[in-house]
Design goal:
Elements lengths: L1 E10 L2 E11 L3 E6 L6 H8 L6 E6 L2 E2 L5 H7 E4 L11 H7 L11 H13 L15 H13 L5 E5 L7 H18 L2 E5 L3 H7 L2 E6 L2 E6 L1 H4 L2 H8 L1 E7 L5 E8 L1
Parallel strand pairs: 3-8, 3-9, 6-7, 7-8
Antiparallel strand pairs: 1-2, 1-4, 4-5, 9-10, 11-12
Helix pairs in contact: 3-5
Length: 254
Amino acid sequence: MIEVKNLSFRYEKDPIIEDISFCARPGEITAVVGANGAGKTTLLKCIAGLEKGTGTVNICGKDTGKLSRSKISKLLSYLDQSTDCSAELNVYEVILLGRLQQLSFKVSDEDIERVDEVMEMMSLTQFADRRISELSGGQRQLVFIAQTLIKNPQILILDEPTSALDLNHQFKIMEFLKSVTKEKHYTTLLTLHHLDIAAKYADHVVVINDRKVYTEDSPDKVFTEKMLRDVYEVNAEIYVDSMNDKHIVALGSV
């Protein structure tokens, strides 16, 4: 579980996020949404221990403010939206890097077994010897997600895991994350740009506006025409499809 209480962060004198509080629970996907510049990425970095804010972040019952960055990294896996690596590495090597706590040539039998397990789970075994540069954008994103899973973390923190992907790969990645979150009882916290994807796959949604939590709840309660006007400054209509998923149709700026 992730518990965030009164979390704030400033860059020099400029406030980026202010007094953020919410919980992300095991076995659920919690999506953070909001307009560009709302502070979503900064929020995730503070929770992951990559930035130092004020307030309290508890991960698995432990106050991260009292833990070193290395100890925090053992509790969670973090995927940055701009993740990249050497084009010369193959898929197997990229995933294995997520298993190593520090750069070393020492690879254990357990490491090898874990890489094989995750690659099979994500249907990546056939790409093991392919260079990462030879894969499509969606395939590369699956590899980087596999790298975050390789530690078998209790907490997954993913910044825009579906960014720059076509709809097919967005669905595939989110369906996989939904499945593995429930199966492994992970606490999965992510940011999403596409609200239809958040409405379909998230169990809980936190809306950030003007650096603060505007609202948080289940997708069916969060996504309203009023929220879209207030946060995104658009007029929109919302309809529910035959699978009971919400869809948002933006009509234009307010």
